[in-house]
Amino acid sequence: MKKTTFKWLAALAGLAGLIALWAMAPLDAWVTALNAQVERLGLWGYLVFGLVYVVATVLMMPGSVLTLAAGLAFGLEAFFLVVVSAAIGACLAFLVGRYLARESIEKRFADSRRFRAIDHAVRDEGWQIVGLMRLSPLVPFNLQNYLFGLTDIRFGHYALAT
User: What count of other Cβ atoms lies within 10 Å of the Cβ of residue 132?
Assistant: First the structure.
């Protein structure tokens, strides 16, 4: 078996495992427990919840459940907590994509005119493309974070547009 084939199979197996774990997870019990813990922690609850949200974003877990939980736990203040946490998580996911996957993707698609064209467009018009993609429901937010990490966009432009 080729090394690249093994890597792809391992990645697919890992992804399938994460999807299965997520599907079987008792989300309602977790949200209830999280809200109770946040109330006990007081102001520290904001930090703990923010960290949970950042980790969930990096792990590509759907943010809607946590966003609703934030609304229940924090009321209107949840808006700022969710926005900041999602932006931090997005930036971390971008950096993971940039430093762990970009080189292998670049090698794989080195001869692809389409990939090079997309890469150059994102590099040249980066913040505008990120901003427009954030408005599009066609590509999920968490996936965009990693995909932009694979391009040549400057981190500052990405973070600002995010």
Answer: 11
